[in-house]
UniProtKB/TrEMBL annotation:
<keyword id="KW-0560">Oxidoreductase</keyword>
<dbReference type="GO" id="GO:0016491">
    <property type="term" value="F:oxidoreductase activity"/>
</dbReference>
<dbReference type="InterPro" id="IPR002347">
    <property type="entry name" value="SDR_fam"/>
</dbReference>
<dbReference type="Pfam" id="PF13561">
    <property type="entry name" value="adh_short_C2"/>
</dbReference>
<dbReference type="InterPro" id="IPR057326">
    <property type="entry name" value="KR_dom"/>
</dbReference>
<dbReference type="InterPro" id="IPR036291">
    <property type="entry name" value="NAD(P)-bd_dom_sf"/>
</dbReference>
<comment type="similarity">
    <text>Belongs to the short-chain dehydrogenases/reductases (SDR) family.</text>
</comment>
<feature type="domain" description="Ketoreductase">
    <location>
        <begin position="2"/>
        <end position="179"/>
    </location>
</feature>
<protein>
    <submittedName>
        <fullName>Short-chain dehydrogenase</fullName>
    </submittedName>
</protein>
Length: 266
């Protein structure tokens, strides 16, 4: 039975990823710092899942989560780093504490879980697969999102670096980069105005946690066995360009191209 460790499993995307793997019959270890929400995720799986309450911002916590999952329920086959933090923070307002906590969760934690996972797998001569959850912000920042964008850009480089070094040990490391996915998060609340502005994309709808979960399970699984060091953009085409901008030669009274997307779904 495949053993999957999912961090950030109490969140909308992390929870959906856990459910997708459970539907495939996997054994799940779920980690998050919110015990009540974590238990709710475990209850939705319809099968037994181990839960580990952990604050991944603490230096020793990421390694401890992987080691506990490994020793408690057998070797981990797939590691999904879905835990993340998105504070609204202008670059002019950054201080050391806010920057360090953001990078501790968004970058250091997945790097340390991956390192621990790799050491344990290499020691036992086991293959493995790691999927990090990045963001479209890694390629394009927005007001108030500079520190977050910086952390995700660094995560994508760490993903490629780990893939380069661990490939010889049959450990694949990839990332999934979601576009805008509403999850009604208490930790990372999003206003309706922001959601409408950022949700524009060629496919004309916001993403769902299930869209991301399907990409993660595929990328972690055997059908993607010759893929490593890649970042899979799952964003409805948002990263292709700025569809909401008018043509440069249009008159001021020309129709708004973004308006044509409203109500369009697929």
């Amino acid at each position: 039975m495949t053993h999957v460790l999912v961090t950030g499993a109490a969140g909308g995307i992390g929870g959906a990823i856990a459910e997708a793997f459970a539907a495939q019959g996997a054994l799940l270890t779920l980690a998050d710092r919110q015990p009540a929400a974590l238990e709710r995720t475990a209850a939705r799986l319809g099968r037994r899942a181990a839960v580990r309450t952990a604050d991944l911002a603490l230096p020793d916590s990421p390694a401890a989560v992987v080691e506990a999952a490994w020793s408690g329920h057998g070797p981990v086959d797939i590691l999904v780093n879905a835990a993340g933090l998105y504070p609204s923070l202008d670059m002019a307002d950054v201080d050391a504490a806010s920057w360090d906590r953001l990078f501790a969760i968004n970058l250091r934690a997945p790097v340390l879980t991956t390192a621990t996972f790799a050491r344990l797998a290499m020691k036992e001569g086991r293959p493995g697969s790691v999927v990090n959850i990045s963001s479209g912000a890694a390629q394009r920042s927005r007001p108030g999102g500079g520190p977050y964008a910086s952390s995700k850009a660094a995560l994508e480089m760490a993903t490629r670096a780990a893939a380069l070094e661990l490939g010889a040990h049959h450990i694949r490391v990839n990332a999934v980069s979601p576009g805008f996915v509403p999850v009604a998060s208490d930790c990372n609340p999003v206003s309706a105005r922001y959601a409408k502005a950022i949700g524009t994309n060629p496919l004309g709808r916001s993403g769902t946690p299930e869209d991301i979960a399907r990409a993660v399970t595929w990328l972690a699984g055997p059908d993607a066995s010759w893929i490593t060091g890649e970042v899979l953009r799952v964003d409805g085409g948002s990263s292709t360009g700025a569809l909401h901008l008018p043509r440069i030669w249009q008159l001021d009274d020309a129709p708004d191209p973004a308006a044509a997307l409203e109500g369009h779904t697929r």
